[in-house]
Amino acid sequence: MPQSKGRRKAKTVRRPTPPKSASGGKRAKQSPKIYVAIMFGLMVLGVLMVVTRYILDTPSWLLLAGLGCMGAGFLMTTNYH
């Protein structure tokens, strides 16, 4: 009867060194307060324009402008730190 081969030792795996912090020890970025104010201001202005469009039955361009303001405010949130 043939003999089975013995178990081999597991190979030692070199673990990669952890990456250094992206900031390199520097302070994290922070958005200026005016950026935050403009971002939320655009969103609120957009909501007010859309609501005004439906309550007062104003022209439809106000709806598009309101949606544009809300979209611009939302896009600003992607760069917020």
Q: What attributes does this structure have?
A:
mainly alpha, 81 residues, 2 helices, single chain
What does this structure look like?
By secondary structure, the chain is mainly alpha-helical. 49% of the residues lie in helices and 0% in strands. It has helices spanning 33-55, 61-77. Helix 1 (33-55) packs antiparallel against helix 2 (61-77). The longest helix is centred in the middle third of the chain and has 23 residues, at 33-55. It is elongated, with a radius of gyration of 29 Å.
Task: Give the arrangement of secondary structure elements.
Blueprint: H1 33-55, H2 61-77
Described by strand count, sense and barrel closure, the largest sheet is:
none
Count helical runs: 2
- Helix fraction, binned, reads 40-55%
Low-confidence stretches: none
Q: Quick recap of the structure?
A:
With 81 residues, the chain is mainly α. 49% of the residues lie in helices and 0% in strands.
